[in-house]
Amino acid sequence: MTAAFGGQGLLHHGHRPVLLRETIELLAAERGGLFVDCTVGLGGHSEAILQASSGAQVLGIDRDEEALELARQRLALYGSRFRAVHADFRELTRVLATAKVRQVRGVLADLGVSSLQLDSPQRGFSFRYEAPLDMRMDTSSGETAAELLGRLSEVEIANLIFEYGEEPRSRRIARAIVQQRQRGQQLATTTDLAHLIERAVGKGNKRRIHPATRTFQALRIAVNAELENLDRFLFEAVDHLEQAGRLAIISFHSLEDRIVKRTLSRLSGKCQCPPRLPKCICGATKKVEILTRRAIAPGEPEVAGNPRSRSAKLRGASKI
Ligand SMILES: C[S@@+](CC[C@H](N)C(=O)[O-])C[C@H]1O[C@@H](n2cnc3c(N)ncnc32)[C@H](O)[C@@H]1O
Fold first, then answer.
1. Potential cystine with 53: which of 32, 136, 207, 218 (Cβ 3.0-4.6 Å)?
2. Is residue 309 within 8 Å of 295, Cβ to Cβ?
3. Cα 216 to ligand 1 centroid, rounded to whole Å
4. DSSP string covering 189-214, please?
5. Is the CB of residue 45 below 6 angstroms from any atom belonging to ligand 1?
6. Closest residue (by CA) to atom 7 of ligand 1?
7. What is the DSSP letter of 241?
């Protein structure tokens, strides 16, 4: 099975699925059965699951219609073994009820944005392209990044950029954003925001990341509420696994990985409450065996071939 993934994964629309071989092994996809790919994206991981066994089926969820359509086209050759659903994976229970599915053999979530989203100029995820400041993965609903920056107070913007972007100059950037707003000038496009950040904190030197990188990441996480209810989703996913069913989660951000690590710990029965509490309130109950004592990270060849994989961390568990 390993050789089939060629070490660095398959390329599709410039997108390489991250930690592909490791994920397929963790899911034990060669056993076949029904898997839910909660972040189907361009279908890279889904395709590898389908290839791992002729008895494998995938229910693929994504909140991005554009990605889902590309995945549908790519995986059409697998016929009814692949089904696509436009939804937020935090609605997993509803999606499975609608599909009349109770239990599944595996659940995968490869969190964050796809290369398609980052590299589509019109989506507004990147300061490399002039585009409306949107950043919504699901363009059919919710608030855009421009609307969010128009609504939040200076303190809220600073906290958001500091927490989600780990940006040390968050206050200076937030002040510049609010001053621009007070002058009646809207931040409508990606380049409006990138130039404002450059004016506020300087252009930085060429070897460092662009000064807008962290702010853009923070805004994307906030616009898509990426960390919200991630713990609840993991509990629900485990409830839908059959016995010995597998859960695999790939995260790209330290806050995200911390939530995954702690929630898996709770699901393995280890209480995460502060030691001074007289009684456990975190809901720790032994439902899974953790399969990754340490998160699995990409090796050097993968990072060299796909620099975006460098912050990826894979964690997995098996239902008891
Ligand atoms: C890193 S990409 C997945 C790439 C995919 N594994 C592949 O091999 O092509 C993440 C995808 O998850 C989707 N996504 C992120 N958060 C989501 C959520 N809460 N519900 C549904 N889809 C989500 C994004 O729209 C994006 O297409």
1. 32
2. no
3. 18
4. BHHHHHHHHHHHH----TTSPPTTHH
5. yes
6. 44
7. E
